[in-house]
Specification:
The protein is an all-alpha fold. The protein has one domain. The chain has two helices and no strands.
């Protein structure tokens, strides 16, 4: 009788250890996935900031150059702003749906890993 009880106790203890190990493994997988996701977001964020400042400096330079050419700095900035507005509008019309689909798929794939 004691051997059956000890066998059952060993089985229960083994199941508890297995469950605890699975829980710990799930936590570690979640942490790993979250850290990969956050590092990807941080990298993209830093890259976007660098691109933004580069484009801002080039835009200011182009605005001043065009402003000197037409002899009014205000017109230079208006021309560059109008160019960006038209470019953004055309870009949205042409690629808007594709960008939504790409980012949606990217988020789903990052969260499912």
């Amino acid at each position: 009788m004691k051997s059956n009880e000890s066998s059952i106790e060993l089985l229960v203890e083994s199941v508890e250890n297995y469950a605890n190990t699975n829980i710990e493994l799930s936590k570690l997988k979640m942490i790993h996935s979250a850290s990969k996701w956050m590092s990807s977001i941080a990298t993209i964020f830093i890259f976007c900031i660098l691109i933004f400042f580069s484009i801002a400096m080039l835009s200011i330079a182009a605005s001043i150059w065009i402003g000197n050419y037409v002899e009014s700095l205000a017109y230079g900035f208006i021309f560059v702003g109008g160019f960006y507005f038209c470019a953004a509008f055309i870009f949205y019309l042409v690629f808007g749906a594709k960008i939504k689909a790409i980012f949606g798929d990217l988020v789903v794939s990052m969260l499912s890993k």
